Amino acid sequence: MAVAFFILLSFAALTSAMSLLEVVTAYIVDELKWTRQRACWVFGGIIFLLGIPSAVKQEFLGFMDGVATNYLLPGGALLIALFTGWALSSKEQQEAFDGRGKADAAFRGWSVVIRFVSPVALMLIFLHQLNIF
């Protein structure tokens, strides 16, 4: 049972890695007009090399986990909230909210939360992680 578990776990990891590499490959093929094979080999190799320190040093993995959890996730969420609330037009926000493009009370409440409440809450989280607040 343990052997089957780890074989299946390996397949899950491999297919997940392939789906993550596909994003980079598609962008490079579309924008830089590289061949798929070249883009896969080059960026797959770069990603592999960048992953070696995490596999070799437990301290590095812990450090990167802390950076991602404490700074990158709240920072990314803040940027998404600001972009969604302030950079998208009202029509785009309505379509993203319900897919129909119709304003209603739920959308107006969501709009207030995404523009004002979420950025303030995320800034407080971010400042707390920096030990400022």
Provide structural commentary.
By secondary structure, the chain is mostly helical. It folds into two domains: about 1-55; about 60-133. It is about 85% helix and about 0% strand. The protein is built from five helices and no strands. It has helices at about 1-30, 35-55, 60-85, 90-100, 105-130. α1 (about 1-30) packs across α2, α2 (about 35-55) crosses α3 and α3 packs antiparallel against α5 (about 105-130). The longest helix has about 30 residues, at about 1-30. The radius of gyration is 21 Å and the shape is extended. The protein starts with a helix and ends with a helix. The relative contact order is 0.06.
Order of helices and strands: HHHHH
**Helix content range:** over 70%
Class by alpha and beta content: mainly alpha
C-alpha-based Rg, rounded: 21 Å
Q: What fraction of the residues are assigned to beta strands by DSSP? A: under 5%
Distance between the termini: 49 Å
> How many structural units, i.e. domains?
2
Describe the largest sheet. Answer: none
Shape: extended
Mean pLDDT: 91
Low-confidence stretches: none
Number of E-type strands:
0
| Total number of helices | 5
Kindly list the characteristics that best describe this protein.
single chain, 133 residues, mainly alpha, 0% strand, extended
Give a short summary of the structure.
The chain has 133 residues and is an all-alpha fold. The chain has helices spanning 2-32, 36-56, 58-87, 90-98, 105-129. Helix 2 packs across helix 3.
Q: Could you outline the blueprint of secondary structure elements for this entry?
A:
Elements (H helix, E strand, L loop, with lengths): L1 H31 L3 H21 L1 H30 L2 H9 L6 H25 L4
